[in-house]
Specification:
The protein is an alpha+beta fold. The protein has a domain of 55 residues: Alpha-Beta Plaits (2-Layer Sandwich). It has a 5-stranded mixed β-sheet with strand order 4-1-3-2-5, with helices on one face.
Length: 93
């Protein structure tokens, strides 16, 4: 089985704090077998750093664009990168 590993670093803007966005991302990332972290930023956005199988990363990106029911995604920036192997699991920071 040939799996391509990659990563992405994302910033999500809108109503994404106080609406369980971090737990939503963490739950889906773990289900997809991805590792990394999600955290709130002082400017009201959410930062996500994720690594794993490329196909699974794309699924998470699609899910993040929707978010949980109470969230409103106004904008997002996704920077793709090579897999680093720096993370053992997925954490909410």
């Amino acid at each position: 089985m040939n799996t391509e590993l990659a990563s992405f670093h994302a910033y999500i803007y809108g109503r994404v704090q106080g609406v369980f966005f971090r737990s939503y991302v963490a739950r889906h990332a773990r289900k997809l077998g991805l590792v990394g972290y999600v955290c709130n930023l002082a400017n009201g956005s959410v930062e996500v750093m994720v690594e794993g199988e490329s196909r699974q990363l794309e699924k998470l990106i699609d899910l993040m664009k929707i978010g949980p029911a109470a969230a409103r995604i106004d904008d997002y920036k996704i920077n793709r990168a090579d897999y680093s192997g720096n993370y053992a699991d997925f954490r909410i920071v």
